[in-house]
Amino acid sequence: MKRALIIIALLAVVGLPFLFRPGHAPVERADEVLVIITPHNEALRYEYARGFREWYRARTGKTVAIDWRVIGGTSEITRFLESEYVSAFQNHWTKKLGRAWSTEVQAAFTNPGLTPDQTPEDDTAALAARRAFLESAVSCGIDVFFGGGSFDFIRQANAGRLVDSGIMRLHPEWFRDDVIPQSFTGEPYWDQRGLWVGDVLSSYGMIYNRDSLQRLGITQEPRNWDDLANPRLQGEIALCDPTKSSSMAKAFENVIQQHIHREWTRLEKETGRGRASLEAQAVEAGWISGLRLLQLAGANARYFTDTSQKPPIDVVQGNSAVGMCIDFYGRGSFQGGARRVDGSPGRIGYHSPPDGTVLSPDPMAVLRGAPNAKAALAFIEYALSMEAQKLWNFRPGTPGGPDRYELRRLPIRRDFYVPEFDKYRSDPGVDPYAGANPLIYNGAWTGGEKFRAMAFIVRVMCLDPHPELVAAWKEIIRAGFPPDAVAVLNDLSAVSYPRMKDRIVPALTSKNRVDEILLARELAGRFRAQYQKAAELARAAAR
User: Which stretches of 150-224 are DSSP H helices?
Assistant: First the structure.
């Protein structure tokens, strides 16, 4: 009898959830399907799918369903697209064109350095592969790439995986300085060839837990990136792996850009020379001082996660005191508890250093060989329409606002920021185009392959040897910051600006993937040994 009761109880535990689960909503039959790959979260996907479906039906009389492909962050999406296009083009090259596949062809067909001329009869195998790809409708089976960092979209465009959507010809009136400027504070907001266009703006900052700061004895809330090096934050900072999230890599790049500007100003004051003659020196010095700050932030880091959504969650839950994050995660994480009952600030705060971040676009683009190119263009048109732009920063339930989720992001359209919208907005009065932004982005300093090299350096400097970095930092703090130990910890000569350009970038862009792997192993090993030595020196000084 006892055994029977146990069996009945187990069956009840297993079966009741299935018995009482809500019924599935019927799947809507759609006239068309649009496949979109994106790093955007579920809230955004819900609001955009709902809005686009209604907008599309009103204009065409047809129903459209979005097939969202969510495989991770922008870096994971980039690797996926690269792999898919290699397979698709190999099939096109060997079966349709009847040509032999080789490593030379594979390396050449997406090589932006190869420009086909008007004489295809003179093409080498590499140039023929590049020409064939650019003239083809080779497809990865996906229509739209939606969201992420501009760095990845620029790389995809240069490789030839993106095509002109036609949006600039359809709505030329949108691509003006008073609507969507071509660039702002040094950041490009759309591709002049029409290969991608920004949809929404992102800046970066620090989300922090006031209760955790109080527990640590920190009375001043974070206001500058330099605050991430505070020794009291040891083991309390939440960071994201910049090789996995290009959005957060952008935040790290902002830190370095800020330091370059600082060094430039310092050198100008100290030397009295003209700024132009000091730029190269400022770039090299700012590169090192910016990396050094990121190194100390890494020493304070509790972890480096794969997803940019985790740090805000952990800060809200009290598992970390401070996290670097994208602005909308920071604002969205504390919107429900901005004030305590007594009117004082709530547990969670967010701050973007005004001279430490630029406004970067989250782009969107139509992929080469898009199965539904017409619907893809319609989606781009919808996303840039005022109807869709309102979803980013209107409150749920307001006229034209989102249905369920408050997205709290800043639309890219300049004409969105008008006084009559303030009463509906989540962040009234915030205008990214108003006033001067002290940080002007210069892509020549850290953009392109240098951006990728920066993320790689953070990995080999902070992630791979993280246990040794943390241990060395603890010993240095305990010993009272002995200068010799600090000097060893902070030795970044292996990743200086000249070495980055002359050694690291070539390894990352090499046709042989082994070059990158070997360099990563070498540099991580060097930093690991360096941190162990710094710890030994600190322990000796403490005796």
Answer: 150-159, 167-170, 210-215
> Would 538 be classed as within a structural domain?
yes
Report the candidate in 355, 358, 357, 308 with the shortest Cα–Cα distance to residue 333. Answer: 308
- Is residue 261 a part of any domain in this protein? yes
pLDDT along the chain (543 residues), means of 10: 56 48 52 96 95 97 97 89 98 97 95 93 95 98 94 95 98 98 95 97 95 96 97 97 90 97 95 93 98 98 92 95 91 57 72 90 98 98 98 97 94 97 93 83 95 97 98 98 98 98 96 94 98 98 86
CATH number for the domain spanning 266: value is 3.40.190.10
* Within-domain flag for 37: no
The answer to whether the CB of 198 falls within 8 A of the CB of 365 is no
Spatial CA neighbour of 159 closest among 87, 194, 107: 107
Residues of the domain holding 353? 204-357+439-542
Give a yes or no: residue 124 inside a domain: no
Helix 246-271 to helix 275-300 angle (10° resolution) is: 130
The residue assigned the tokens 């900072």 is 237
Number of domains in the chain: 1
Q: How are beta strands 360-367 and 162-163 bridged, if at all? A: antiparallel
Q: Is the pTM of this model over 0.90?
A: no
